[in-house]
C-alpha cells in the first residue's frame, strides 16, 4: 500500500505556522519546490504529514496531497510521529476533507463516534488518536486509556508494547514501569517475569540481577567491565549528560556525542573520576574518544594518562 503524504498550508497559500514562503506558484505549476539540503525537523526543510487532520483548521487552511523527495522520518519511540521533513515536494492535487459531524461530537475527525478532536480512528474521547477506543491522547493502537501509546490494550502512559498497565513500557503485559521486557511487575527490567527492579535476567524477585530466580540482593555489579561493590555503586552520582534524550535521527551513539558536546567541563571531569573508568570501554559504548575528552578539558588540569588508553 502506497503511503499518502499531505501538506497543510494557510488559505493564502503561505506556511500555516508562520513564515513568508509562497506556495502559490507551485500549487499552480505542480513543479518541485527548491531543494533544501540541511534537513532538521521543526527547523529546516519542508514538513509533510500522513495525518493532515492533526493540523487541520477548517477556517484557515487548505490540504494538498504531495509527493515528497529526500524524506526523513523519525521513528516513534512513543505515540505517533505527526510529521516528517523532506528536501522538496511537489503538489499532486488538493485534498478536500470530508467530515461526518453526525457521528462525531468533536471536530475534525475522520473516524466515527469520536468525542475528541483530530482522530482518524473510531470511538476516541481523547485527541489525535489513529487507533480505536482510545480515551487518552496521541495513541496509535487499540483500547488505550493512557497517553502516547502505540501498542494495544494499554492503561498506562507512553507504552509501545501491548497490554501494559504501567507506564513507559516497551514490552508486553507489564504492570510495572519503564520495562523493556515482558510480564514484569517490577520496574526498569529488560528481562521477563521479574517482580524486582533493574533486572536484565528473568524471574527475579531481587534487584539488579542478570541471571534467573534470584531472591537475594546482588552484592557485586560490574562497572566498566570490572567488579564493584553494590554499596559503592549505589553512591555514584553519574554526570547529568548521561541521561540524554535519544535522537532517532542521530542514533544512540550520535545522541551520546551531542550530549557530550553540550556537557560542562565539570561533568566531563566527573566522568573520568568514575570508579573503574576506562577510556576504551567508554569509547566502545559512546564513540567518545580519549582525544575528545582531553580536548574538552584542555587547559583545565592534567589527566592521569595511565587511566585507560
Secondary-structure blueprint:
Blueprint: E1 5-10, H1 24-29, E2 46-48, E3 61-69, E4 84-86, E5 88-95, E6 220-223, E7 226-229, H2 230-234, H3 251-262, H4 265-272, H5 279-286, H6 290-297
Antiparallel strand pairs: 1-3, 2-4, 3-5, 6-7
Notes on the structure:
This protein folds into three domains: 5-95, no CATH class; 100-173, no CATH class; 240-297, no CATH class. The chain is 15% helix and 12% strand. It has six helices and seven strands, in the order E-H-E-E-E-E-E-E-H-H-H-H-H. The protein has a three-stranded antiparallel β-sheet with strand order 1-3-5. Strands 2-4 form a two-stranded antiparallel sheet. A two-stranded antiparallel ribbon has the order 6-7. The model is unreliable at 300-309 (pLDDT under 50). By secondary structure, it is an alpha+beta fold. Strand 6 and strand 7 form a beta hairpin.
Looking at this protein, list some descriptive labels:
309 residues, alpha+beta, three-stranded antiparallel beta sheet, 6 helices, 7 strands
**What is the count of structural domains?**
3
What does the radius of gyration come to?
Answer: 25 Å
Secondary-structure element series: EHEEEEEEHHHHH
Shape by Cα distribution: flat
Give the helix proportion (percent range). Answer: 10-25%
Strand order of the largest sheet: 1-3-5
Strand count, sense and closure of the main sheet?
3 strands, antiparallel
β content, as a range?
Answer: 5-15%
Query: How many individual β-strands?
Result: 7
Secondary structure category: alpha+beta
**Terminal residue distance:** 52 Å
Number of helices: 6
Mean of residue pLDDT? Answer: 78
Query: Uncertain spans, ≥5 residues at pLDDT below 50?
Result: 300-309
Amino acid at each position: 500500500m502506497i503511503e499518502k503524504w499531505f501538506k497543510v498550508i494557510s488559505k493564502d497559500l503561505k506556511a500555516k505556522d508562520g513564515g513568508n514562503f509562497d506556495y502559490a506558484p507551485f500549487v499552480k505549476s505542480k513543479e518541485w519546490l527548491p531543494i533544501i539540503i540541511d534537513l532538521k525537523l521543526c527547523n529546516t526543510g519542508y514538513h509533510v504529514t500522513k495525518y493532515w487532520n492533526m493540523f487541520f483548521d477548517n477556517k484557515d487552511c487548505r490540504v494538498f496531497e504531495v509527493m515528497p523527495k529526500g524524506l526523513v522520518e523519525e521513528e516513534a519511540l512513543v505515540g505517533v510521529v505527526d510529521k516528517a521533513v523532506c528536501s522538496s515536494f511537489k503538489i499532486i492535487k488538493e485534498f478536500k476533507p470530508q467530515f461526518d459531524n453526525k457521528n462525531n461530537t468533536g471536530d475534525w475527525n475522520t473516524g466515527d463516534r469520536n468525542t475528541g478532536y483530530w482522530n482518524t480512528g473510531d470511538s476516541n474521547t481523547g485527541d489525535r488518536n489513529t487507533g480505536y477506543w482510545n480515551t487518552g491522547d496521541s495513541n496509535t493502537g487499540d483500547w488505550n486509556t493512557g497517553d502516547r501509546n502505540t501498542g494495544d490494550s494499554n492503561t498506562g502512559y507512553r507504552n509501545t508494547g501491548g497490554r501494559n498497565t504501567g507506564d513507559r513500557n516497551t514490552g508486553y503485559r507489564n504492570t510495572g514501569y519503564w520495562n523493556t521486557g515482558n510480564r514484569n511487575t517490577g520496574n526498569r527490567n529488560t528481562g521477563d517475569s521479574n517482580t524486582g527492579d533493574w533486572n536484565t535476567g528473568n524471574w527475579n524477585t531481587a534487584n539488579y540481577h542478570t541471571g534467573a530466580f534470584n531472591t537475594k540482593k546482588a552484592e557485586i555489579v560490574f562497572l566498566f567491565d570490572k567488579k564493584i561493590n553494590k554499596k559503592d555503586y549505589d553512591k555514584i552520582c553519574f554526570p547529568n549528560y548521561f541521561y540524554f534524550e535519544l535522537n532517532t535521527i542521530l542514533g544512540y551513539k550520535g545522541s551520546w556525542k551531542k550530549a557530550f558536546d553540550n556537557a560542562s567541563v565539570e561533568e566531563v571531569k566527573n566522568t573520568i573520576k568514575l570508579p573503574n573508568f576506562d577510556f576504551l570501554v567508554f569509547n566502545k559504548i559512546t564513540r567518545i574518544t580519549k582525544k575528545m575528552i582531553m580536548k574538552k578539558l584542555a587547559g583545565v588540569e592534567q589527566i592521569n594518562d595511565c587511566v585507560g588508553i
